[in-house]
């Protein structure tokens, strides 16, 4: 059976990528490392989720993911036409204004603690995504054998 935390992390990563595509149409996003010659610029890279499991509840897990995303304008920052800093500032402002939620399994989930930093010509973004995952219901052998017969008068 797959690890439920990994399944949730994969779907949260995908939800972040889909939301980035909505906010920045035409900009590619990646979640896996790929060879540099195949990268399309500009692009977002959703590359890291760190899991913090809250105290377990009876019927669900409270999972808090710390997400790291990077925005690359070009392979070589010196080759950027116009001001690289201005392009990073514009992306940061747009991200801070519009990335307030993602859709996870069809449910809107709020993004918290969103912040950005510019380092070496790359915009680094950090946020928290808190989700509630329902635990699978485990039936005991007696429940599995239970049958219901309804007789009509």
Write a brief structural summary:
The protein has 153 residues and is an alpha+beta fold. Helix content is 26%, strand content 37%. The longest helix is centred in the N-terminal third of the chain and has 20 residues, at 4-23.
Task: Tag the structure with descriptive keywords.
alpha+beta; STM4215-like; 3 helices; 6-stranded mixed β-sheet; 26% helix
Describe the structure.
- The protein has 153 residues and is α+β, with helices and mostly antiparallel strands.
- Strands 1-2-3-6-5-4 form a 6-stranded mixed beta sheet.
- The longest helix has 20 residues.
- The chain is elongated, with a radius of gyration of 21 Å.
Order of helices and strands: HEEEHEEEH
What is the CATH architecture term?
2-Layer Sandwich
Give the C-level CATH assignment.
Alpha Beta
Mean pLDDT: 83
Described by strand count, sense and barrel closure, the largest sheet is: 6 strands, mixed
Estimated radius of gyration: 21 Å
**In the residues, how many domains can be counted?**
1
Question: What share of residues is helical?
Answer: 25-40%
- Supply the number of helical segments: 3
Helical/strand content category: alpha+beta
Enumerate the strands of the largest sheet in spatial order, edge to edge or round the barrel.
Answer: 1-2-3-6-5-4
Number of strands: 6
As residue ranges, the low-confidence spans are: none
Instruction: Say what the CATH topology is.
Output: STM4215-like
Shape designation:
elongated
Percent strand equals 35-45%
